[in-house]
Amino acid sequence: MSILIVGAGPAGLEAASAILKSHQSSPDPANQPPLPSITIIERGSSAGSNILSHWPNVSLFSPWRLNVSSSSLSLLPPAVAQKINSQPSACPTGAEYCDLYISPLSQILSSHPSVTISYNTTLVSLSRSQALKKSMLGRADSNFVALVETTTTAPRSVENSNSDSNSNSDSGVGGGAGVGGGFGAGAGAGVVVTVSESILQDFTHVIDCSGAHHPTPTFFGRGGIPAVGERSLVGDAHHLCNDIADDLTDDYFDEDTKDNCYAVFGSGYSAATTVRNLLGRKNTLRVYWLMRRVPTEDSPLYPVIENDILPSRADLCSSSNELGFGEEEDERCKVLANACCSKVTRVGGADAEFITLTLEELIPELEQEGFVPDEIRVHKIYNNVGLKPDQSTTEELQVHYCYASQGPMKLAASLGAGGGDCLAQVSAGIDVLKSPEPNFFILGIKSYGRNSAYLLKLGFDQAKEVAAFITGVEVTMEETMVSNNWIDS
Ligand SMILES: Cc1cc2nc3c(=O)[nH]c(=O)nc-3n(C[C@H](O)[C@H](O)[C@H](O)COP(=O)(O)OP(=O)(O)OC[C@H]3O[C@@H](n4cnc5c(N)ncnc54)[C@H](O)[C@@H]3O)c2cc1C
Fold first, then answer.
1. Structural domains of the chain sorted by starting position, each given as residue range(s) with its CATH number in brackets
2. How many angstroms does the Cα of residue 51 sit away from the middle of ligand 1?
3. Is residue 42 lining ligand 1, measured as CB closer than 6 Å?
4. Could you tell me how many helices (H) and strands (E) the chain has, helices first?
């Protein structure tokens, strides 16, 4: 048995550790099948890469006790596990979460003889080696095959400065047999970046934990299409930040900076967090908070859950409701509800000093207090209108996605249309996690598609269910400890 896990985020690492745990818990160790080989491929240069590159400074609103699984915790060095256990109610930032949990866990897992983690390795496309997408028979008998891209960087030298476009590599990566070819990619000052393609094959199972950060973000124009000019901002981190507060360091907010007017799009927890972080900075002059929804006093933006067991979520909800509609308004923040952006114009080209947003009311006939101005000027846009998963990698497989949420269909149907309280979510069981494609699973935040109610703890349950299915060994709640005796052997 050979398992490919896509993504070394919390869900991917948990899937690997749950499989090891299930295997160790076999009731009949003498007759247990050999341990599967596990290959994890990760696009980034380290585990937890989406968190580290998109939201390192954002505090999770779930506390440590909900952000770790007991079986993975038991793999960590005792001092690390103790540090985590000593602060069960504290909410780490994304970077702290990766430093203390994700990074040590990835190191421990990669030291296991059956586990390989290949970084800088991106899944491009998956299929069955002997079956096309349209083939209905024999799919389970044909192993998975994947095209991956591996990125390497090397210092520019006299020799390679002349051969960027011809750089080549024929090395495979990970556990599968490799067939490779390469080509030069863009090069920064003093560095040559080479992207090589290779084929990984012979996987009996694939667990897709690649998250929901699609290379092309969701757009803030009318109905979710791009506003005029919005696409030209994609990839320009200074002007279109699909993620949250990734540069909110004190250095960025230097006293002299003129870049201090912002537009924040969205009305979820991410947008609320961005607005709060921006207003927490002394140099912020103006935050325009643009949203399609129209909150009222009776129907607030963020319903506050009575006795919420997540105090930081409760704080965020109450303070965000106050911002626009309560008595404790911050005059620097202008909430623009029922707002829609139709056009984005950079003034000044690449060194733009500001961006003009042309606005209109989403529903013109709606009677509401306040108004949506025709035009605003900002220095930076935070686009927090939601995440969406990348389905392109599974195009050649028979995966049934929900046409609304873009999550796998059975799970999406079990969740229903509404998001609901993420804490109330429970994993729906292995039958719901199975897709029409045999032995292919989508776990983690990608399994929720555009539905934002996903929490880490759900991924831990999903991983346990899939591990039990793959290994045939169910792990009970009591059997929480995983031995890490491979480390000594
Ligand atoms: C700002 C923010 C705050 C959040 N706060 C909380 C919270 O407080 N509590 C909570 O429980 N949840 C929270 N979540 C939700 C969720 O738990 C996290 O997003 C979590 O990181 C999801 O883990 P994951 O492993 O499913 O996906 P990710 O963390 O996104 O990991 C996916 C990994 O796959 C890699 N990858 C992607 N595509 C490919 C590819 N083609 N090939 C190879 N590798 C690939 C990525 O580089 C990444 O490392 C938050 C989410 C966001 C965005």
1. 2-143+204-212+388-471 (3.50.50.60), 222-383 (3.50.50.60)
2. 6
3. yes
4. 13, 17
